[in-house]
Amino acid sequence: MYYLLTYDVVPEYLEKREQFRESHIELALAAVSRGELRLGGALTEPSLGAALLFEGDSPKVAEDFVTKDPYVLNGLVKRWTINEWSIVLGAGVPAKEIDFGN
Hints:
Blueprint: E1 2-9, H1 13-16, H2 21-33, E2 37-43, E3 49-55, H3 60-68, H4 70-73, E4 77-85
Antiparallel strand pairs: 1-3, 1-4, 2-3
């Protein structure tokens, strides 16, 4: 199952994140190495936030990331959400049968 974690960030997030960036990236790389984090990055022009795609048995994989993320812990993230994402195709995900109503 896939879970999309989205962050809404504070104004001037790009400037404020610099002191926490290395720790954030280390946390993300550890999640990648465990096979939990599949994609992640900032929404740009202007910086609106970030989106991270997790894979796991429950939303706990994303929740655990949030509880340790220095961006969240240091107030750079105003609000975050986790939603189950039913991926139908693309990005190496095996295509599911699609009912076209025929």
